[in-house]
Amino acid sequence: MQLSDKTAGTLARRLYDALRERIQAGELGPGTRLPSSRRLARELGLGRNTVLDALERLVAEGFAEARQGAGLFVAALDLTPVTSPPGEARVELPPLSRRGRELLERCGDMRGSHRAFAPGIPALDRFPHALWARLLRRHQRHVPTAWLGYQTQGGLPALKAALADYLQLSRSVRCRPEQILITQGAQQGFELIARLLTDPNDPVWIEEPGYGGAQACFAAAGLERIPVPVDDQGIDPAAAPASPSPRLIYTTPSHQYPAGATLTLARRLALLAAAERHGAWLVEDDYDSEFRYTTPPVASLQGLATQAPVIYVGTFSKVLYPGLRLGYLVLPEALVDDFRRANARLHREGGYAVQAALADFIAEGHFARHVARMRHCYRQRQVCLREALAPALAEGLELTRGQAGMHLVAWLDDHAQERDLVARGEAAGVTLAPLSRFYLGEASRPGLVLGYAGADEAEIARAGAWLCQAWRETRSPRLPQRSGQADPTGE
Amino acid sequence: MQLSDKTAGTLARRLYDALRERIQAGELGPGTRLPSSRRLARELGLGRNTVLDALERLVAEGFAEARQGAGLFVAALDLTPVTSPPGEARVELPPLSRRGRELLERCGDMRGSHRAFAPGIPALDRFPHALWARLLRRHQRHVPTAWLGYQTQGGLPALKAALADYLQLSRSVRCRPEQILITQGAQQGFELIARLLTDPNDPVWIEEPGYGGAQACFAAAGLERIPVPVDDQGIDPAAAPASPSPRLIYTTPSHQYPAGATLTLARRLALLAAAERHGAWLVEDDYDSEFRYTTPPVASLQGLATQAPVIYVGTFSKVLYPGLRLGYLVLPEALVDDFRRANARLHREGGYAVQAALADFIAEGHFARHVARMRHCYRQRQVCLREALAPALAEGLELTRGQAGMHLVAWLDDHAQERDLVARGEAAGVTLAPLSRFYLGEASRPGLVLGYAGADEAEIARAGAWLCQAWRETRSPRLPQRSGQADPTGE
Predict the structure, then answer these.
(1) Are the beta carbons of B137 and A238 closer than 8 angstroms?
(2) Is B136 at the interface with chain A, CB within 8 A?
(3) What CA–CA distance (Å, rounded) separates A430 from A424?
(4) Is the CB of B76 inside 8 Å of chain A's CB atoms?
(5) Which residues of chain B lie closer than 8 angstroms to A454, CB-CB?
(6) Is A166 in the B-facing interface, judged by CB distances under 8 Å?
(7) A229-257: per-residue pLDDT in tens?
């Protein structure tokens, strides 16, 4: 017997590995007497203690057993389940579940891109790294012991307090700090909502087109997703089927994702009335409301209707950065304790030092200043994108209007062009998100969701020029003009 | 009209709030003409621009509308859904779902405790804070921009590489780095497993007694949890019902949680055979295997059977600290990409700077040294607990044997005593986790799960002395001796 050089670890570990391998391969069958430690030591040129260590471990793990006065024997066990099969035979593994397969269908290839025009990426190049690192250091140096353990407060109280003030001022959200639950991103918030407020097969209204992250989360929770069309006033409850009654209504009222409309007051009222009529919860996803360039942000739905069943979902992924994994829910008082307990049980809490840094970032005014800077930056980048696309715009390409957000939608002639452009972009290093990906059903109108926030002006100009050229080359000769459909998203 | 002093924000914001409030309260009904900006400015002593800002915002949000040449009017909308109800009238909110209520039943009150004898808390007082803070600083100073965005690699490659080496050496896990998926804690791993590999109402075998976190996660996923009894050899597949066939088998083979047994080789083989027979996945939760005081850790089930359907679940909550929220899955090659995509879609990835610090912590040997120190520390603390309980042990209290882990189980006479002691502990500031809490069904034997890892020697001595006294006072006079049942957990 030889010890493999490939195996890492001490000599004793390598001897143990080698013996166990021979036992599992059946070369040393059940009941076989193992050589004595003396003999093994002599033959392998190992110290006797090394050999004894290895043999003891075999006994401890049940592969060998000592018989009084007769030495060690391979255990009399049927090792078939752990026998290494000959060659490279593949064993049949149990399959994915039905819900697993359905979920994966909505996952795409999930290869992240930070190039123009990947949507949803903030200006990471403008993030105040030095300041943020300083705030982190402040709280990482002397961490209260309790922060390291299992926390169950629903988030650091200082962060909840700072956030409640900020939300009241800038989003007209009405809440006490205790109504806030800090989560590891908005996705965790959707998940808790689905777990606690819905049962499998319950219907949920989803904006069409809408946000894939929420769609996937509700799909994973087994909900029946009912697409509700969006037009230039936002989601239209009158266009939803009268039955079945939804248990949840998911909406992005400040800035519909991805089509860009702001939900009008009339629609807000209609949506609240529909929620009441159906006994549904309204889930208000306020992902990028801070970035309205020329007018103050529209007040939240949550603050509009204090007694309505509204859960406000917030994230720091857009204002700070996605890798931070911090978001929050603003819950009606009646749900606070249930959500806190379920979150602590299902997901556990953590990252209190980061939460403390974020609380300071907000309370010391850095957050508001960063938002203001980013608002200015995104406004410039949007202008830059419109300028880069000017040649195509002159020839009939249409972009959504709106002085807000982190992306625009470019409307295309047909789905063949959409597919063609996405494929060309992939080859050319330009990320183009097809609008059809945001639809649950058939996409009513083809387009591209062009994120401009994460790319600097030079990249936007470069990628924009490329897109103009590609757009021209892919125009359908049969459709020189845009189709007659109304722009569903103009603001 | 007066502006409230309670409202924060600019004067314009306060005026907007005040006007909106009167509109929502119905004091300014639909169609009412609003006073002119001049008049409002004069009456309230405000600048005209301030008033115009407020009025513009009311118009922008749809509460007021301009009529050519006639001024501003309250919008002709039925505001009933957002009308503030008189007084403190509570509105009926939609109820929790059935699965939500069931989940909450398994959540207890989820108030964290770090006192003796809270189980599952590592020695946070011994954590190398300065070293860890230094490693964090190293990676937080110059963060690659991509780390801030949406990552989709299944975790930082450097961490996966360091971890694969460590797992191979110390846990005999066989994997390439690519088979590892970094998660935000073990709970997220359970959740992905349930989502992708099971459908609602699928049966899952759960150790009885067992780990509440996994139980809750599988419950939330809608699985039928089948308790399978544990004895002194670990989970016993022969004691499970022949049908229905489980889709998952959840086990803690290295150190059964909470009863402490190590799964014997015979049982490992039986469990693997059962998994194959039923077409089930084995979920190996290896939460604290590092802390075996006198013998090397038992090799993992994953490494024992390379071709078997085993998913290895690891966590850094015990070796580092729970608030870190980092765990991982070791997946068969066939599942790697599906799990990576579903995780990126459902939970998103993040915290790459922390992952980089952890990769260094492992690769530079700090991890192994910290484990060795904690092993020594926990051994001492266990000795300390046994000594503190010596008076009661002399009078018949029984503790689980075993030179491993972070807790011991103390067996009690009856459930009344268990309840009594837990309540007395609460009053006295001693955390006593009742064993019955770890059962899905009726607890077969009452006891207390005594965590000793997180408390220092002085606290263990103090709380132990208190427990001896309380135990004596609560002994049932009818049961001076232990019941005749076999100790299910002695190793």
Answers:
(1) no
(2) yes
(3) 8
(4) no
(5) 149
(6) no
(7) 999 999 999 999 999 999 999 999 999 99
How far apart (Å, rounded) are the C-alpha atoms in residues A249 and A223?
12
DSSP SS3 for B85: coil
Residue among A262, A312, A247 at smallest CA distance from A284 = A312
Query: Hey, is B183 helix, strand or coil?
Result: strand
Query: Which residues on A lie below 8 Å from B107 (Cβ)?
Result: 341-342, 344-345
CA dihedral (A49, A55, A58, A62) in degrees, to 10, reads -120
The helix (H) or strand (E) run that includes residue A224 is strand A224-231
Q: How far is CA A203 from the centre of its chain?
A: 22
H or E stretch including A250? strand A248-251
Q: Rounded CA gap, B320 and B371, in Å?
A: 9
Tell me the pLDDT of chain B averaged across its residues. 91
Distance from CA of A481 to the nearest CA of B (A): 33
Touching check for B348 and chain A: CB below 8 Å?
A: yes
Taking the Cβ of residue A25 and every Cβ of chain B, the question of whether any pair is shorter than 8 Å is answered with no
Where does A393-441 show beta strands of DSSP type E? 398-399, 407-411, 433-434
- Closest residue of B to A220, CA-based? B195
Contact A216, B344 (CB under 8 A): no
B279, A91: Cβ pair inside 8 Å? Answer: no
Give the tens place of pLDDT for each residue, B204-260.
999 999 999 999 999 999 999 999 999 999 999 999 999 999 999 999 999 999 999
| Cα–Cα distance measured from residue B416 to residue B430, given in angstroms and rounded to the nearest whole number | 18
Give the residue from chain B lying closest to A131, CA to CA.
B141
Closest to A441 (Cα-Cα) out of A303, A178, A239:
A239
Report phi then psi at A411, rounded to 5: -85, 140
> ipTM of the assembly?
0.92
Contact criterion met (CB < 8 Å) for B348 and A325:
yes
Instruction: Give me the count of residues in chain B.
Output: 491
Q: Where do we find the tokens 């802390």?
A: B291
- CB-based contact, B363 to chain A, within 8 Å: no
- Between vectors from CA A220 to CA A216 and to CA A225, what angle results, nearest 5°? 65
Contact between B477 and B397 (Cβ < 8 Å):
no
CA B447 from chain center: how many Å? 23
For B344, the closest of A81, A110, A127 (CB atoms) is A110
Q: A416-455: per-residue pLDDT in tens?
A: 999 999 999 999 999 999 999 999 999 888 999 999 999 9
